[in-house]
């Protein structure tokens, strides 16, 4: 079955990203397909490669990046939410005149159309928020 | 068209559990997860509602219960404790997933 996942909250403050990760992992282990993971609102904070938690804590960003790498997941960050919160890739840095980028290369920045398409193309859309 | 509802907040913090139970129709399922697992415990304000919901099956996410130190022995009768794999199965078995966030 084809799943898509929407995450509305950032890492460490809420459980949403952890729950979504565990769900995604379980779905992949069962042989399901994940069409897209869409990071919305504060959820865009799950994509900054500069995240540095203490060594004895889970690295939520790296964990997503590794799962994405392993299963070639399409992990999309909402552009408007990202701009507000300072999540930047090369294109956004150039367009908005920023001096740095911080997005992990496993993620990509795009628009809300990607969420709608995920809802249409997938058998189930599962939302994780607060 | 049966639905899987997920409730992730304690019934003592938010009204999403009550809203969800009021909305859920026979044949649907309610998965209690994150702080929502508190609604699965015996002796609380939710016990009567869980027991009287006609044709609605309740589940509670075991890892979230464990993370909160909640004993499986104290779960309301009829509530099934599940893992993430079963969460995926429930999402597959029902025609849509409604998140009461």
Sum up the structure in keywords.
heterodimer; A: 130 residues; alpha/beta; Hypothetical Protein Ychn, Chain: A; five-stranded parallel sheet; B: 101 residues; 4 helices; globular
List the helices and strands and how they pair.
The complex is a heterodimer of chains A (130) and B (101).
Chain A: E1 2-7, H1 16-29, E2 33-39, H2 60-71, E3 75-78, H3 79-85, H4 90-96, E4 107-110, H5 113-121, E5 124-128
Parallel strand pairs in A: 1-2, 1-5, 2-3, 3-4
Helix pairs in contact in A: 1-2
Chain B: E1 3-7, H1 16-23, E2 29-32, H2 47-52, E3 57-61, H3 62-67, E4 80-82, H4 84-93, E5 96-99
Parallel strand pairs in B: 1-2, 1-5, 2-3, 3-4
Protein name (chain A): Sulfurtransferase TusD
Pfam family, one (chain A): DsrE
GO molecular function, one term (chain A): sulfur carrier activity
Structure commentary:
Chain A: One of its GO terms (cellular component) is sulfurtransferase complex. Chain A: Belongs to the DsrE/TusD family. Chain A: This is Sulfurtransferase TusD. Chain A: It is found in: Cytoplasm. Chain A: GO terms for molecular function: sulfur carrier activity; sulfurtransferase activity. The complex is a heterodimer of chains A (130) and B (101). Chain A has helices spanning 16-29, 60-71, 79-85, 90-96, 113-121, and strands at 2-7, 33-39, 75-78, 107-110, 124-128. Chain A is globular and about 45 Å long. Chain A has five helices and five strands; from the N terminus they run E-H-E-H-E-H-H-E-H-E. With 130 residues, chain A is an alpha/beta fold. Chain A has a five-stranded parallel sheet, with helices on both faces. The mean pLDDT of chain A is 98. Chain B has one domain: DsrEFH-like (Hypothetical Protein Ychn, Chain: A, 3-Layer(aba) Sandwich), CATH 3.40.1260.10. Chain B has four helices and five strands; from the N terminus they run E-H-E-H-E-H-E-H-E. Chain B has helices at residues 16-23, 47-52, 62-67, 84-93, and strands spanning 3-7, 29-32, 57-61, 80-82, 96-99. Chain B has a five-stranded parallel sheet, with helices on both faces. The mean pLDDT of chain B is 97. At the A-B interface, helix 1 and strand 5 of A face helix 4 and strand 5 of B.
């Amino acid at each position: 079955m084809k799943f898509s996942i929407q995450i509305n909250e950032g890492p460490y403050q809420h459980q949403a990203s952890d729950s979504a990760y565990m769900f995604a992992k379980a779905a992949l282990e069962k042989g399901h397909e994940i069409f897209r993971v869409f990071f919305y609102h504060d959820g865009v904070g799950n994509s900054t490669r500069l995240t540095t938690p203490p060594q004895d804590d889970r690295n939520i960003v790296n964990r997503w990046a590794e799962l994405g790498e392993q299963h070639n997941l399409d992990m999309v960050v909402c552009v408007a939410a990202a701009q507000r919160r300072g999540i930047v890739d090369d294109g956004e840095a150039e367009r908005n005149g920023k001096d740095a980028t911080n997005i992990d290369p496993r993620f990509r920045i795009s628009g809300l159309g990607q969420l709608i398409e995920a809802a249409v193309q997938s058998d189930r859309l599962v939302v994780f928020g607060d | 068209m049966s639905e899987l509802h997920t409730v992730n907040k304690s019934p003592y913090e938010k009204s999403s559990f009550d809203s969800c139970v009021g909305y859920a129709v026979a044949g649907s399922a309610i998965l209690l997860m994150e702080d929502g697992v508190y609604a699965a415990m015996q002796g609380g304000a939710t016990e009567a509602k869980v027991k009287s919901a006609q044709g609605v099956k309740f589940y509670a996410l075991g890892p979230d219960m464990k993370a909160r130190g909640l004993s499986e022995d104290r779960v309301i009768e009829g509530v099934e404790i599940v893992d993430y794999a079963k969460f995926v199965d429930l999402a597959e078995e029902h025609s849509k997933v409604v998140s009461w966030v």
